[in-house]
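During the reporting period the student researcher (J.K.) took over the structure-prediction task from the postdoctoral fellow and processed the backlog of single-chain submissions. One of the processed entries is reproduced below for the supervisory committee.
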Amino acid sequence: MSLPITRRWLLLGGCLLVALWLRAADLGRPSFDTDEYWHVFAAQAVNTTGEPRLPSGNLYTRVRWHTDQVAASFKLLGVSEASARVPSVLWGLLAVLLTYVAGRRWLGPAAGLVAAGIVAASPVMVETARFCRMYAMFQALYLGTLIAYAAGWEPAGVRLRRRTLWTAVGLLLFAVALKTQTLALSFIPAVAVYWLGRALIRPRSRYTVFLLVAAAGAAAVAVTGIVDVPALWAEANRVPDWAAARQQDYAFYLKEWAAWYPWLAWTAAAGAAITLFRYRAMGWFLVCQFAVPFALHSVVFDWKVRRYVSHLFPLLALLLAPLVEVALRWAWAWLKALVEPATPRATAGARAGWGLAGCLLAAALAAGAGPSVAQTLSLRNDPRRPRWRQGYTFLKTQVRAGDAVLAAVPLSAHHYLGTAATHAFNGGEFDRREKAPKDAEGLSLDWYAGLPMVSSLETLQRVQAKYPRGWIVSNRGRFMDDAHTEPALRAYILEHCRAYHPIEGSTTVYVFGWDRTMEQVAADVTEPSS
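J.K. obtained the following structure tokens:
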């Protein structure tokens, strides 16, 4: 099943068009999620003051270049959910293109197209490309780093000038990827394991030299203290309360991806075996680049969030591509045999057998991809995203001047309610409460919104004593999670506050209210006259 160059470009163009539609269709329908607000407000501040300040007054400098991209999109398209996510869409398209480039270089054009198609339609990749955060950009930078490394250091006999150029490009991409997301560090042990495997097979190869140089460099870093490794390790393993529940769930990422790809367990193993058999060294390189970081994220690293391994999915797609290519080749050969003149019985039987096997394999892969495609299409109205817009649209019809508004994600009220909440209904993001300043009443201030935090029953009752009427707005996940909402606080709210959800049939956002003015009116009516 050879592909002429014109057909390759047409198929690649089709992949990119599908990828664009899946990433951009109804881009503004889901409400902003928690992490998106930080870039949204910082970007608006960049456009007005030149500094990425949050409503709290604090500077939000993490991944400043992504905030600047969002700011540029706001200038061009206006402030909206869709325009905030446009930079991620563009980076997501680049990730699809780079997947094809890597596949064509390492496995051949057909496998490159297959891998690009998998990445284009995968919910793992579409989800992050429809999110105003740095993950789609990190995916492209990480894959670009691997392409540059392989181009500069894997081929034998590469001229020094070209090797130096690719090395410089790789180091630059790695540095930017590392500043974007520290998870880029997993590239180092993956390459080290790859070198080790190559050195064990050929002890006198250049990979033995690479390992010796790397070991000497690591020893120099440890001895000189240029990098505070213990402090870096302690920071990497600092787990906030909300992440503690997943700390020992070593199968977390496997279960998350298997929910979208029911056939993942057997296809990943089969794809890796075929890739190793057909491509030897490059197959080993791909296996290491995927398996080593995936194992580290699953077993060693304590923080487990589905998006944290999304940059590894293109590598999984490249491992799966030869398996899909084999199935398509067998099926194509069988179809050709059906229309060609009669062939010797032995040859015809062999073709029929391989062709039937290919058709069955292709059918199994297509059936397994069905849930994945359905999940990808559902991301246009992501069921996991809280419907903050709908929740605050309802609250606008109920809230009065002087009411307290307690928001689990304070910046959501700032954006959708059109005015700041009075309090943050949480304990502070990423355990910042310990270092947070206090207000006049002794309540810790939320780092992002600058609002006093209500995180216990005692603080809520203090707020209720001050405000006769008030509202609590929380997404269901935070409200039902003990790490965000104490059980005693949750029980009190359920018993003493009126619930106004579901809103528009959705329970992703909970709205509770209290009204002591009505209690006072009722008391005045029932009190006997003198």
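The committee noted the following: The longest helix spans residues 345-378.
J.K. will present the remaining backlog at the next meeting.
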